[in-house]
Amino acid sequence: MTVPAHPPITTIGLMSGTSLDGVDAVLVRFEAGRMQQLGRASLAFTPELRSALLTLARGNGADEIESMGDAGVELARIYAEAVHRVLADARMTAGEVDAVGMHGQTIRHRPERGFTIQIGNAALLAELTGIDVVADFRSRDVAAGGEGAPLVPAFHAEAFRGTEPRIILNIGGIANASFLPAQADPDAPVSGYDTGPGNMLLDAWVRRTTGEAFDRDGRLSGAGRVMPELLEAALRDPYFSRKPPKSTGREHFSEAWLDRFLESAPPGARASDIARTLAALTAEAAAREAERTMPSAESLFVCGGGSLNPVLMAELESRFAARTAVRRVDATTALGIAPMDVEGAAFAWLAMRFLAGEPGNLPSATKAKGRRILGALYPAR
Length: 381
Prior knowledge:
By secondary structure, the chain is of the alpha/beta class. The protein has 2 domains: about 180 residues, ATPase, nucleotide binding domain (Nucleotidyltransferase, domain 5); about 170 residues, ATPase, nucleotide binding domain (Nucleotidyltransferase, domain 5), CATH 3.30.420.40.
């Protein structure tokens, strides 16, 4: 996977994921087969917007069409502010940027039924920023028979391939893994898929028990112990035995799923024990998938919010060591991109691919019928 030959292209990638905590903006210039990060910014969602998005994702609100429209407008305004901030960080103007790659906020992901929905009002974002917007990346892959996710393995191959076989594990609300063969084996396929829950279930449990938004520094999970029987009960969920490529989301690993999980907890289980077992679930599911489909990997590099949780990182290190040939576990910072910037950079890359007329999906990761140009253009003028 290489950057196509073209004049320099500068794009901003916007990513807001299943954690529903905010948006990350990353400004990247692509030139002569290289990419250079020029700026970054993050902006948190208001509690009101997060609540509205969560209600839409759950599908249990009144007048969903009206709510979806309102939330899309509010997202566009927050996305626009993130664009202005990343431009200020890079000391650049809107006229110096070719496009914004807007992932949008997923409120429903049903590839088995032929659709996926990300909202964000791309037309309004183009109006507010004065920059062309490329959006709706996932639908084209779904139309070609794919899962529409994960889309990041193609970017991972461009940015992170190295001398040894590697796994890139993104832990946001959902966890997804990309397997990157060594550079010396250019014909070996890159693969990737969702391994299961990332931070989503742990975040929900922390909010219920402490009122905090997430398990900051692993404070809750670090005070607990893994309950092996509860962990094994969770791993009997049919998703974990499905053959890849596969994708999942809040539709499956929902708070109702968490409630069923809690029903299997032994009497006297502490809140910290539940948290530690949920962290172990994320790590064990990823390690089992690596053992099954990525057995030659020697290194694991982690991005997303999960990389900031030392307890989760320790669980990954021990469980990958027990099940795979992986002996190095590190954050993607070691490869040149900060963990919280990887997905934003990926959607900057996908916007660049659209502008260059090049496909952005990877059928080995999404099971689409073939390579496709992803996205739809919303011109600023």
